Amino acid sequence: MASTADSTSPVNLDSAQDRALEVRALYEILEQRFNGKVWSLHELMLGFTNDVGIIGRLILAHDGTWDIDGDVDDQLKHKLAECLWWIFVLSDRLDIDMTQAFASTMDSIDAGLQTTIAATAV
């Protein structure tokens, strides 16, 4: 499968999801070869939560309370991007439009915060 996005180009949410699913398709080829099946939703979720846990350790390393080998900032960039990839993969598997869900969620949070700010103004 040919890549449609240059890895150093800025991306929007739709093109980021497209790129994430291109990479996921490559993983599925290997999963079929080695396991005879692609990962289930539960296996995908376990992969995601594992990476979230690693981010926790990297945050500790960033704050100086956990020692790790290598560049903490580079590893954080990688794992945060990987977690975004997992979100796109999981949302695709669940048939959730993340562009719409993100916009709607941010609008809802924004409205709630604006209301609270207005109500608590002195």
CATH architecture heading of the domain at 13-96: Orthogonal Bundle
Tally of contiguous helical segments:
4
H-E string: HHHH
CATH topology description of the domain at 13-96:
Helix Hairpins
How many distinct beta strands? 0
Rg to the nearest angstrom?
18 Å
Overall geometry:
flat
Mean pLDDT figure: 93
CATH hierarchy, class of the domain at 13-96? Mainly Alpha
How far from one another are the termini? 58 Å
Q: Main β-sheet, in a few words?
A: none
- Fraction in beta strands: under 5%
Helical residues, percent: over 70%
Helix/strand-derived category reads mainly alpha
Q: Which spans of ≥5 residues are poorly predicted at pLDDT below 50?
A: 1-6
In terms of topology, how is this protein built?
Layout: H1 13-35, H2 41-62, H3 72-93, H4 98-119
Attribute tags:
disordered N terminus, 122 residues, flat, Helix Hairpins, mainly alpha, single chain
